[in-house]
Amino acid sequence: MALLAETCRRMDNTISLIIEELFQHYRDCKEGELADYIPELTNVDPESFGISVFTTDGHCYQVGDSLQEFTIQSISKAFTYGMVLDEHGIEVVEKRIGVEPSGEAFNSISLDPETGRPLNPMINAGAIASTGMVSGEGFDERFGRILEHYSRFAGRDLPVDDSVYRSESTTGFRNRAIANLLRNFEMLDDPVEEAVEVYFKQCSILVSCRDLAVMASCLANGGVNPLTGERVLQSSNIERVLSVMSTCGMYDYSGEWIFTVGLPAKSGVGGGVMGVLPGQLGVAGFSPRLDPKGNSVRGMRVFSELSRRFNLHLFNVPVISDQVIRRIYNLSHVGSRCQRRKVHHDAVREHGAVVAVIELQGDIFFSALERVIRATTERADETEVFVFDLNRVGLFDEATLGLLLSMTKQLVDSGKRLVIVDQGHRVDHERFSGLEGGVRFYKDLDVALEACEDEIIAAHVDRPLVDELVPFHDFDLFRDLTAAELSTIEGMLEMVGLKAGSRVIRQGDKPDEIYLLAKGSVSIFHRVGEDSESKRRISSFGAGVCFGDIAVVDGSRRSADVWAGEAITCYTLSVDNLSRLQQEFPEIHGKVMRNILLLNIDRLRRSNLEVGALKA
Amino acid sequence: MALLAETCRRMDNTISLIIEELFQHYRDCKEGELADYIPELTNVDPESFGISVFTTDGHCYQVGDSLQEFTIQSISKAFTYGMVLDEHGIEVVEKRIGVEPSGEAFNSISLDPETGRPLNPMINAGAIASTGMVSGEGFDERFGRILEHYSRFAGRDLPVDDSVYRSESTTGFRNRAIANLLRNFEMLDDPVEEAVEVYFKQCSILVSCRDLAVMASCLANGGVNPLTGERVLQSSNIERVLSVMSTCGMYDYSGEWIFTVGLPAKSGVGGGVMGVLPGQLGVAGFSPRLDPKGNSVRGMRVFSELSRRFNLHLFNVPVISDQVIRRIYNLSHVGSRCQRRKVHHDAVREHGAVVAVIELQGDIFFSALERVIRATTERADETEVFVFDLNRVGLFDEATLGLLLSMTKQLVDSGKRLVIVDQGHRVDHERFSGLEGGVRFYKDLDVALEACEDEIIAAHVDRPLVDELVPFHDFDLFRDLTAAELSTIEGMLEMVGLKAGSRVIRQGDKPDEIYLLAKGSVSIFHRVGEDSESKRRISSFGAGVCFGDIAVVDGSRRSADVWAGEAITCYTLSVDNLSRLQQEFPEIHGKVMRNILLLNIDRLRRSNLEVGALKA
């Protein structure tokens, strides 16, 4: 291969290039007019133009005036509606705000002729009703809570444009009329004037295009801000906010918008447009020149083009659930990283098929869990213990957690046992408390598998696992030695006891001896840097196993640290004694070397099988 | 572990149990009335009740009268609309049928007052306009094409209820009026009567609840029937059909339906309701008693309850793209399964970091590919060759394929090379034809990695890879032997030439010799059954490598077949000569055994590293 430096040039992200290209393309578009119903809105540079895309894993693409601030205006409607859903619940909110599209323009009054209820929260009437439901003592507290709510969506403290607010307040007679009509139908509480004022000020909150993309990405990300990791909206209300954005967000153009662009969206007369591709990303455009319906001209075009170029349509969805099962196997095929005596490994291999391990990944929604339930049911007949590894899982929603509990109960009732590996408490362990005995929790998959293997060995191998010393002549290392040879060896072994927490072998050292673990177990850690304390547990050894032989045989340095997690007892065979053996007892030396070879062939076989199972 | 047979009982699928429970619960609901606008519709058993759920991977849950047939009625509107989109394209169809919700009931006339265009395809006017666009010579051909189209959705030949058809035809004056109005506005071609008749007959096609679930699952599955694997609708039209189902499918109740149930859906007065959870599943309910709006009472309740219990809301979506990258590594960490000489392995390990391997999985939609592009860009500086494994990928849509091409071009322009592993031709290889030299295609990842390794070795190891015989004294097996010892060994080796296509070792045989591959390469296959011909390629060996040593050393049977894919030359060291060595030249035998040990320790190290990399 050629040298890197000679042939390779720095590369830009392909998507950045395309967004940049779109930006350059629409830069020349001068169509539309600035909003002028209040003079303050004409103070903005009509040439301003920004595009931002924010992914649910927190990556931002941005171009142009992405950081320039403008007033949020009608885009606020979606966020305040979500806020009152979180605060009061759907049963209370739906009494005052409907969810049917009005088919009319944004400032239409659109109250239900019988009840006076606004048809939906995306028209001004519904939005004022939402703002009216934000609780707090007086104007400052109510507005303060709204500002704080939006700021949590944006991941930064958002400012307010006071001159726009004052101007809206001075001229907002139509909205005052709507508020009084709402009050007339008891869709708004007293004081009416306070609610309208809070609404005006909410519309004057300043955001940048990047802020809007981040805010949209919170809606795309199930209510968790990808930037801060904070939950900003209850997950059950995400689908409600997105529903009204998709059916009513673009007013009388909503059907067409979903059909062609396919992103639940909201625009404002400040020049911003915000769209959500659920589960994937938030998109925002900013350009202050508006079309006659009050939407940003360049913003709308950028949305259409992004959607077309990247096929971002809401209903262009991946078939998700094939990937929920990362890997499925039983302990006959893939085991823990614990190195054991051959007889123990053989027992696990022979009897391990009754332990099924299912590693899950991604967010667990219904049809993902459906695949898991199906895989579990299919294997139920031949399985005694199911190990579910949730450590790569994003989240369970309430519905799927309930379903998981139902399945767990069923499994326990059918006489199965469950092991749930869940370091991050993705499921509430308390919820499983009725199933004591049937369900165990672990933090680490390897440790869980080791425990399952211990059980298999305890059930199928006569010799007990613990408490007594494994006699030296039981070690595979000394297989086929005669009684006389064994007694020669015995004279060459030392017995060493080490306390819990001792380091047995230090990575990088020259090897002095082979260890035969007579009692207890040790863990192997690989240190990453030279003097670094950062280390990774790579395996463990149980009683009856010899270790440290490889470095002794091939003369390399110790490749890892070995620590005693509990008090251990070892026999050691020193390098010097091994040389003495070679000089004085070549027959014995030959047998020991042959045993080391067989030991490593056996390790190799197991390792190859595992590679095969893992690559399959 | 306890014995399986004693403790474990057969287990039912948890989801089946819950659907069964729902079925039992709503069985007692007697609300609603049979449709009676034509007498034939009252001939059905009012107690009939079925629920079906069909997943995108073809699994069916069904309960009750799931196989009982009834007329499809208005549910047909979604399918004929999709059919004419496929046939004529959106530009033609949108001239005659809009996509805005009417906010009115199903039989409202709802034509645009200016153009006479029906507001959307889910009201009768739009549906008759759709049917009018189905091409064909005369009634029989036009209806026949519709029936065939629906049958491909259902995965079986659907029958027709002729008495319902005749009755609809006899009484359908309102629909005839609509058709003539459409003709008046030139939204329908002559002959008007034929279009209405085809429409009546289309509504009389018989489906079962299971059929509807399968048909819905085609819409959920991107237009491919999960049952037959056949594409039944163009993928670009899926999002269009689902869009109008979601905004207009439930008439003036659509906003509320999406808000609370959250599934694009369609119901018919035959008692059927069909819903789609995109990417996940199709749902259907059947029960003939209708509410005043003409929807199946039990059907609607089952949908609400299924959606609530399983949280099936459209906007309750998983964050999908974290799973697109199944695994990412470079050739320093994980290599091909090819066993090579130590010096070659070392070269790959030392220089392999410039080959980055990215294994993808799932359907590749924008934000999935976005993650891939990001991962690629991040690694561009230190990478010379990118290997993309697409063998676990579902599909690329046109937009993401375009994006992949852009990235590929950029990579090639920056001096990188690409290897695309794509057995199933998920991407059109022709589209990459401008990038000759920069992009290579392989069917098998392992073969692709082997080729990359060959290149690394050719660039970094002096000795050429092919053409000349590796001399026996260069084999690691004879390391550290003196000249005299080597000549002793030479006398014990045989040289064997084998033709391409020969079996070198047969699985299950007793081992007779160790092979030293002097020229060519061999592949290792594991046969699954005893006499079975089904075999799996597990690895390969290159020139300079010895194989067959393990079975000779530990006396086991051959564990796999070894085949020569090309003409090869081997040295062999027989078991007899190995014994002779042990008797007559124990010094040499000791060295050879030690070398076998070192060889296997080295294999074990590599294998363990791979397990670590694969489990990480």
What is the overall silhouette of chain A? elongated
Our estimate of the beta-strand percent of chain A is 15-25%
Could you name the CATH class of the largest domain in chain A? Alpha Beta
Largest protein interface, residues of each chain? A-B, 130 and 129 residues
Number of helices of chain A: 21
Q: Please report the total strand number of chain A as a whole number.
A: 21
In quaternary terms, these chains amount to homodimer
**CATH fold group of the largest domain in chain A:** Beta-lactamase
CATH architecture of the largest domain in chain A: 3-Layer(aba) Sandwich
Alpha-beta content class of chain A: alpha+beta
CATH superfamily of the largest domain in chain A: DD-peptidase/beta-lactamase superfamily
- The whole-number mean of residue pLDDT values of chain A reads 89
Q: What is the makeup of the main sheet of chain A? A: 5 strands, antiparallel
Give the key terms.
homodimer; 616 residues; alpha+beta; Beta-lactamase; Transcription Regulator spoIIAA; Jelly Rolls; 3 domains; five-stranded antiparallel sheet; 21 strands
Brief digest:
The structure is a homodimer of 616-residue chains. Chain A contains 21 helices and 21 strands.
